[in-house]
Amino acid sequence: MTPPEENALQQSWFSEAAAEQATHQLATLQQDYPDWKIACVSDLDQPIWYAILRTTLTERQKAAGNRQTFMRSSAETLTSALAAQEKRQHNCPITNHFTS
User: Fold this and answer.
1) How large is the average pLDDT for residues 3-9?
2) What does the DSSP assignment read for 21-73?
3) Strand pairing partners for 56?
4) How far apart (Å, rounded) are the C-alpha atoms in residues 25 and 72?
């Protein structure tokens, strides 16, 4: 599945005011979470916000409950999911087992 353009917001579902708000929310999420590819697909019955982590999780991070992708029905719920993920990643940092 090929994701839509990063800034994809179709005007057909959103009112003009809602589209403007969604565009702002998308820009804010992209700025706040640069390690994620974040987009909104809005040409469906309900908009879908999703985030895909740009890097691969370690087995340790997966075991700690981290996820590679999120799909949510609103920018607010996606923000909550990403904030929780960020907290888990902070508690489970990537460690370098190699020494020079």
Assistant:
1) 51
2) HHHHHHHHHHHH-TTEEEEEE-SSSS-EEEEEESSPPPHHHHHTT--SEEEES
3) none
4) 14
Strands 69-72 and 36-41: unpaired
Around Cβ 80, how many Cβ atoms within 10 Å?
A: 13
DSSP annotation string for 71-100: EESSHHHHHHHHHHHHHHHHHS--------
- pTM confidence score: 0.73
Backbone φ, ψ for residue 21 (5° rounding): -65, -45
State the average pLDDT over residues 70-96. 84
What letter would DSSP give residue 12? Answer: T
Q: Please check whether residue 47 is in contact with residue 41, taking contact to mean a CB–CB distance below 8 angstroms.
A: yes
**pLDDT tens column, 66-76:** 999 999 999 99
Is the pLDDT reported for residue 32 higher than 90? yes
